[in-house]
Amino acid sequence: QKEVEQDPGPLSVPEGAIVSLNCTYSNSAFQYFMWYRQYSRKGPELLMYTYSSGNKEDGRFTAQVDKSSKYISLFIRDSQPSDSATYLCAMTGSGGSNYKLTFGKGTLLTVNP
Amino acid sequence: DVKVTQSSRYLVKRTGEKVFLECVQDMDHENMFWYRQDPGLGLRLIYFSYDVKMKEKGDIPEGYSVSREKKERFSLILESASTNQTSMYLCASSPIETGYNEQFFGPGTRLTVL
Questions:
Q1: How far apart are CA B32 and CA B94, in angstroms?
Q2: Nearest chain B Cα to A43, which residue?
Q3: B-interface mutation test, from A37, A46, A91, most B Cβ less than 10 A away
């Protein structure tokens, strides 16, 4: 089983839709969870950063972590064409060999005007 | 604003050449990283550094070396480039306060080895 699984998509939605992006993971030592957005031919940019379980909201973006299910989500409300990008989840533990950031392979999202 | 810059956006080299990829960050971050990104394989860590002159191997260090002589600069070296090293190379940095978590990426260098 891979450490982090992320559906590669592609996902295509109309403008204004609510988008749900998800990752599952197998390593119970993961405690820090991140979402990166990567536009075509650019480096990833950090979008959301959460610790342990719970929700975090930032504008139209909400990150959700369920450690009991080993499942994380990113919700985008009122999606815009400018949200079209690849979204990467990333996670890490603390201490020992769990320091390394482990990435999902990314989900390609297209928001159509 | 954190800024991570990479010396080239696009690079074309020949098999067997020695290749230097340079990365500079301006936020006084202690940690710096080199990744490669390939379709279907995602981001893979090559090397990272937590201090000047310190380095640790990542998941795929074979065929690569690194140098960190100054805090702001982290170089990736391909000793003898091969075609399977054609890839997008991404540099990142993070502050010591957040460990390896909040990494800030540069724009990437797309390297083609012929």
A1: 6
A2: B107
A3: A46
